[in-house]
Design goal:
This protein has about 290 residues and is α/β, with parallel strands linked by helices. It is about 45% helix and about 20% strand. It is built from twelve helices and ten strands. It has an eight-stranded parallel β-barrel with strand order 1-2-3-5-6-7-8-10, surrounded by eight helices. The longest helix has 17 residues. The chain is globular and about 60 Å long.
């Protein structure tokens, strides 16, 4: 089992930066003691290629897809790429898989993920490539009980995104004591409540306006009145931790107390093309051993 540390970095920054800047950033994160960097697949850069570039630029850093979209590539391509990364960088790549990519009407997320995992497992059994000394490690993006069950049964565990600490506690109950639970959470270094909530609402806006995410927030315990109109103060404060570094660090530790093995911290408020490095440095001073 790979050791990602208790806290890691989750970032969209690398989608908007040249490769040289990305390389410099991950090398500094590694030097400062961060053990894991997570990144999504949303802006055009291919998930497994980007993972390989980050692994090649570093020596010890764990690189996590959070997530690689299952319909962005066939299972055969995912198998081939992840097997090579596992062989080249033993126990440093974690393949996070999630429901996404070109949508197929009428297909349910749970069924789609189970079918994809079946294909990956079949390919592993008959792969013509050398088996890596350490196997491919994978986790699933999961929120509801059935997907959490699947994550426990078919992977190392679950990766959650934009959830509150109550969800973390509930997810731990479903996963049991042994499965991995990684929790992403956005943070904002802003102490003025009005400014903080305005930035947080801008960040949360796309998530508060899509049926899948609305269903998730209802499951988290927020009524429609709190989800609409940009989100209530309670919802915003639960889903984006803002304030000074000590306040933010204390709130992040609440996820660990609720059962998370690892918390991937996403700094928001950075303009595309900018860098969150100054904030990552401050977080490192507060969160890392």
């Amino acid at each position: 089992m790979m050791n990602l540390g208790t806290f890691g970095i989750y970032t969209f920054d690398f989608e908007h930066q040249p490769a040289t800047q990305v390389r410099d950033s991950v090398q500094e994160l590694e030097e400062r003691g961060w053990r894991a960097v997570w990144f999504p697949e949303v802006g055009g850069r291919e998930a497994l290629t980007q993972a390989g570039a980050l692994l090649a630029a570093t020596e010890r850093l764990h690189v996590v897809n959070g997530i690689a979209q299952i319909w962005a590539r066939e299972a055969r391509a995912t198998h081939g790429a992840s097997t090579l990364l596992a062989d080249a960088y033993p126990d440093r790549h974690l393949l996070g898989l999630g429901f996404g990519g070109l949508r197929r009407p009428g297909v349910k997320p749970l069924a789609a993920m189970a079918e994809y995992l079946d294909e990956l497992d079949a390919l592993t059994e008959k792969s013509p490539n050398p088996a890596p000394s350490s196997p491919v490690r994978r986790v699933l993006a999961a929120y509801g009980p059935k997907m959490l069950d699947l994550a426990r049964e078919r992977s190392l565990g679950a990766h959650t995104y934009h959830v509150n600490t109550a969800h973390t506690a509930g997810a731990r109950e479903i996963l049991g004591p042994d499965a991995f639970l990684g929790v992403e959470h956005p943070v904002l270094f802003e102490t003025d409540p009005a400014k903080a909530r305005a930035t947080a609402r801008e960040h949360l806006g796309p998530y508060l306006d899509t049926p899948y995410n609305v269903a998730k927030f209802r499951r988290l315990g927020y009524p429609d009145a709190e989800i609409g109109g940009g989100g209530s103060d309670r919802l915003v404060d639960d889903l984006v931790f803002w304030g000074d570094v000590d306040t933010i660090a204390a709130k992040l530790r609440a996820h660990v107390e609720a059962g998370a093995d690892h918390v991937a911290v996403q700094v928001i408020g950075t303009e595309p093309g900018g860098t969150s490095l100054p904030h990552w440095r401050r977080l490192g001073e507060a969160l890392l051993p």
